[in-house]
Design goal:
This is PLIN1 protein. Its main location: other. One of its GO terms (cellular component) is lipid droplet. One of its GO terms (biological process) is lipid metabolic process. The chain has about 100 residues and is mainly α. The chain is built from four helices and no strands. α2 crosses α3 (about 35-65). The two termini are about 35 Å apart.
């Protein structure tokens, strides 16, 4: 039995995934149409990737120790998401609907 991941579930909700796709398209089109903005975005993206890798490297021991607590929190969040999906059917539709 594969452990559900609440973040993956949220990202798979049509309302969330369609919003992310729209934002990604706007970001890409802005980068393509404005050369100065593209260079600023590339510097920012490299910085975020480097900071993210460094943060993950530094957090790894902590994450390993807190894994049981993360599993409990993830299970509770998944149950909460089940409840939200039942109560708010609009989460199952893309933003434009």
């Amino acid at each position: 039995h594969v452990q559900e991941n609440v973040l993956q579930r949220v990202l798979q909700l049509p309302v969330v995934s369609s919003t992310c796709e729209t934002l990604q398209r706007k970001y890409s089109s802005t980068k393509e149409s404005h050369p100065l903005m593209a260079s600023v975005c590339e510097v920012y993206e490299r910085g975020v990737q480097g900071a993210g890798a460094l943060a993950m490297w530094g957090m790894e021991p902590v994450v390993r120790r807190l894994e049981p607590q993360f599993a409990v929190a993830n299970n509770l969040a998944c149950r909460g998401l089940d409840h939200l999906e039942e109560k708010i059917p609009a989460l199952q539709y893309p933003v434009d609907k």
